[in-house]
C-alpha cells in the first residue's frame, strides 16, 4: 500500500503521532556548504504546505542556528504551531569561554561530524550527565523560542563516535542522563525520548538500560546499508518506535552531481559509488528514480514509524515528497532485495 506524506503514525507509548515523512534540519546549519536563511525558511514553508508536521533539529546543527530557524518558522509562519511535532537532541552544549568557565579541549572529530559552513560561533561540549541533559533541554527551549518539545534524542552516543571516551560518556548517560529524561517525561515536559545515532549498538544497549519511546537511526537501514535490520526487530518487540534518518546515506542515493556524492558525511569511496551505480541501473529498468526507492525503502519495515529527509531548498522538499509518494512495482523491490 502506498504511504502518503501526511499519514499519521503512532509513536509507541508516547501518545503522539508523526507524519510518515518528516523534515530534518541539519542542512539549515550549513552542512557541506552555506545556506541562506531565506532558503531554509522557504524549505520549511514548502514542507508545511505539503502536510509534513514532524521537524527534527539538534543543537549541533549549525551550532544552534538550525533550532533558531526552525523555531522562527513554527512560531511566526506556520499558522498553528500546535500541529507540529518537534524533536531535538541532547548531549551537546553550546558554550564559549568566560571568566570562571574554561572549556575542555576540543575532542577529536568523530567520523560523523562534517563541520558547519555558516553556523553560529559557539563551541560544542559533550555532556551526557543529569545536569548536562537538563541544561541542554533548557537551552533548546530558548533557541526554539517555545516550551513544547515533544521528543528528545540523546545525540551521537556510542563507541564509533566517542572512541576511547565512550566508557565515560556512557557512564554519564546511564548514571544520570537517562534519569533526567525520565523526569522530564514524567513531568509532562516531553512526551518521549530515545537516542539519535548512526550506531545500532548504542540503541541496542540503551534498550537494556531504560524504557525508550522512539529512536532516530541514521544511515543504518537504507538501500546501501541494512545493518540495522536485527535492531529493528528488537525495537518492535520492545514497543520502541524507530524513525529512519539518513535514508540517502548523506546524499549519494539522491545525488544530482558529483559534489553531492557523500556517504556517511564524507566523499563516497569508489566501492560505494560502484554499488550505487548498480542500484541506479536496476531502478532505471523500471523507470523509477533511485531516490524514490531510497526514501521509500525503510517504510516497508513495520518497525519504522516515519522517514526523515533533509533539504536545502524548496526543490529538495518537493522532490523528496514526489519520490515518497511515487508508485513502485513489487518487482523492483524484489530485484533490489536480491541485490542487497
Task: Summarize the SSE layout with pairings.
Layout: E1 8-10, E2 17-19, E3 21-24, H1 37-49, E4 54-56, H2 65-76, E5 85-90, E6 92-95, E7 123-126, H3 130-144, E8 151-155, H4 159-162, H5 166-186, E9 192-197, H6 200-206, E10 214-218, H7 229-237, E11 241-245, E12 262-263, E13 266-267, H8 270-285, H9 290-296, E14 304-310, H10 314-324, H11 330-339
Parallel strand pairs: 3-4, 3-14, 4-5, 5-8, 8-9, 9-10, 10-11, 11-14
Antiparallel strand pairs: 1-2, 6-7, 12-13
What does this structure look like?
With 340 residues, the chain is α/β, with parallel strands linked by helices. Helices cover 37% and strands 17% of the residues. The strands form four sheets. An eight-stranded parallel β-barrel has the order 3-4-5-8-9-10-11-14, surrounded by five helices. It has a two-stranded antiparallel sheet with strand order 1-2. Helix 1 (37-49) links the parallel strand 3 and strand 4 (54-56). The chain is globular and about 65 Å long. The model has no long low-confidence stretch (mean pLDDT 95).
